[in-house]
Amino acid sequence: MSESPSPLAELVKARVREFMREPGYVFWVFGFPVLLAVGLGIAFRERPPELPRVAVVTEADPARTSALFSAQGRVLTERLPRAQAERALARTKVDLLVDPGPDGLLLRFDPAQERSRLARVVVEDILQRGAGRRDVLAVREQTVSEVGSRYVDFLVPGLIGLNLMGSSMWGIGFNLVLARKRRLLRRYAVTPMHRAHFLLAYFFSRSIFLALELALLIGFGKLFFGTQIRGSVLDVVALGVVGAASFAAISLIVGSRLDNTEVANGWMNFVMLPMWILSGSFFSYERFPEWLRLPIRLLPLTAVNDALRAVYNDGASLLGVGFELGVLVAWGAVGFLVALKAFRWQ
Amino acid sequence: MKRYGDKVAVNGVDLDVETGECFGLLGPNGAGKTTTVEMLEGLYQPNAGSIELFGLAWGRGQDGEIRERFGVQLQETQLADKLTVAEVLKLFRSFYRRGRPVDELISLLALEEERNRYFSRLSGGQKQRVAVGCALVGDPELLFLDEPTTGLDPRARKSLWTIVERYREQGRSVLLTTHYMEEAAALCDRVAVMDQGKIIALGTPRALVDSLGMVQFVEFEVTRPLEEAPLSALPSVASVVSRGQHYRLRVDRSLAALSSVLDELARQDVQPIGLSTHQATLDDVFLHLTGRALEQRTEKA
To answer: Which residue segments constitute the domains of chain B, with CATH numbers given?
Structure first.
């Protein structure tokens, strides 16, 4: 005879060990989102503004246009024969063309192009100063890039949302299908193990990983991109818990009966792919037509993303994201009820 | 009785396993052995009939109580790959109120060296010992083993038998299914032979074999045709079955029987190839009852 260990603790330990010992799982849950954040963060980082490109025809008076060639950092200037310069302008390879005019210089450009209008202002300023104009008012400038309105500030909450969905779906739904396929579920079913312990073990192990995932993504965003949570960190955690529970319920439906991992794979993608595209993790769903937006807002991933962004970037409280919380709770409740009805141990 | 659609898997199976007994369900794949034990284990509800374990019935609010008292090794269960032997056993130990210490169990299973090895890294025989260990960890009064040695080599099979025998030394009961008659003969006090969902014979292995009479079997092959009638006419020969050039004769258990068969072959000037004789086994009982060999269809399993 021996002292009985706690079944709940043992089940949770088993789930955590199985996860941590499978490098593939660890990568997809922890490594992949960070890589995604790095990749997208770099691709969409704030770039220095592009300089106006200017062509000076060779026939123009070098004395009058030399200022353009010494104004590095404000324009990109090249000297071209007229025919070639005109072709470059027509193909928008240059934004503006400098030609000798009747009593000075002729600036040729397409006013429909914003960059060309900008080039015109910059080029004239350089030329006038080069010709000896003196400014009468002293003006200084200061550049601003505000945290909270950059692409990474949009991206990081979206990645947290994606991760909540992915790890709940794979970690619970797919794991159940795998256990059923391996006939492990029916093996448990012939022991006196309490059914509630089994499901609670999923809940607790999921919570442990959720804490790690949130800490990782929030910390990573802060360290590498300087993203800041304007609202409360606790609200982000609360949204994480509600979101994870909601996705867990949906994944339970997928995992309630299937015993074939390939079929389960298909269902997982069927559930997740539309949300990857529609729910605004990478770009705003405002780009979809008006009539699609309400259905999109009713998707659980959209709700998580919108709520997280509101807390992250607008400093909203949980009360401010009531609609999104409602969507998540509804999905969670309906999901659990359906899964309970449908669940099979074998 | 258990029905799947309109296919009846098990019908009219009526059996009692006594305390301290090892009871064997013997039969080919598809005979209904697994369905029978899985109904007993509470995994399926019978469509008709009743099941009692320790005087308790399923579905009356005592299911948990019943499950505390038996241990199960199911067919084809794959335990968690990335848990060690000790972790798997401790996990299953936690499900039971009472049970055996994990260390004691590991030495009973002779898995001391594999204690901290992942389940996925074990050999087939070692995996099966862990599966039986999970069945023993709750110190059960009744042990269900569903084809415990299918697919194992003879050494792994013997080491599993040793574990079962040591469990039985404590006066506990076993219900075992197998399609190896050798296994049934080695472990079981009583055997029920199943075929097509029915029990076709029940008794001790000895009694079942003896029911064939005091017989032995003579088998041989020939290179040219043989006249069967004079063989059948021999007083010591009970029956002659031929399949192509293969002959199988049921003869009475005496030296004279064998020599009379050999004399007749010599008279016909036939040279027997691969001549062998053996005592009747449970396999012959099955062959006698159904006209089909027991292991022939199942060897690949």
So the answer is: 2-204 (3.40.50.300), 214-279 (3.30.70.920)
Which two three-digit tokens encode residue B196? 């097509």
Please give the pLDDT value at position A105.
86
Distance from CA of A216 to the nearest CA of B (A): 25
CB B114 within 8 A of CB B122: yes
Model confidence at B301, pLDDT cuts 50, 70, 90, reads very low
pLDDT score of B9 = 63
What are the CA-CA distances from residue B63 to residues A276, B67, B77, B130, B220 (Å)? 44, 6, 22, 25, 55
Domains defined for chain A, CATH in brackets: 7-44+147-342 (no CATH), 53-130 (3.40.190.10)
Tell which residue, A151, A195, A189, has the closest CA to residue A7. A195
What does the pLDDT look like over A207-254, one tens digit per residue?
Answer: 899 999 999 999 988 988 888 899 999 999 999 999 999 999 999 899
Distance from CA of B1 to the nearest CA of A (A): 20
Minimum distance, in Å, between the CA of residue B143 and any CA atom of chain A: 12
Contacts of B95 in chain A (CB under 8 A): 7, 188, 191-193
Q: What is the pTM of this model?
A: 0.76
CA A304 – CA B135 distance, rounded (Å)? 44
Tokens (6 digits) for B230:
């004079």
Average pLDDT of the residues of chain A: 88
How far, in Å, CA of B190 to CA of B20, rounded?
A: 12
How confident is the model at residue B47, as a pLDDT? 82
Tokens found for residue A26: 């660890």
A contact residues 18-47, partner B, Cβ 8 Å cutoff: 18, 21-22
Report the 3 state secondary structure along chain B: CEEECCEEEECCCCCCCCCCCEEEEECCCCCCHHHHHHHHCCCCCCCCCCCCECCECCCCCCHHHHHHHEEEECCCCCCCCCCEHHHHHHHHHHCCCCCCCHHHHHHHCCCCCCCCCEHHHCCHHHHHHHHHHHHHCCCCCEEEEECCCCCCCHHHHHHHHHHHHHHHCCCCEEEEEECCHHHHHHHCCEEEEEECCEEEEEECHHHHHHCCCCEEEEEEECCCCCCHHHHHHCCCEEEEEEECCEEEEEEECCHHHHHHHHHHHHHCCCCCEEEEEEECCHHHHHHHHHCCCCCCCCCCC
* C-beta separation of A248 from A206 below 8 A: yes
Q: Tell me, yes or no, if A7 comes closer than 8 A to chain B by beta carbon.
A: yes
For residue A145, the SS3 value is coil
Confidence tier at A58 by pLDDT (50, 70, 90): confident
Considering only A12-26, B82-96, B141-155, B225-239, which range has the smallest mean pLDDT?
Answer: B225-239
Give me the half-sphere count of Cα atoms (radius 13 Å) on the Cβ side of residue A111: 0
Interface test with B, best of A191, A261, A345 (most B CBs within 10 A): A191
> What angle (nearest 5°) sits at the alpha carbon of residue A236, between those of residues A231 and A242?
140
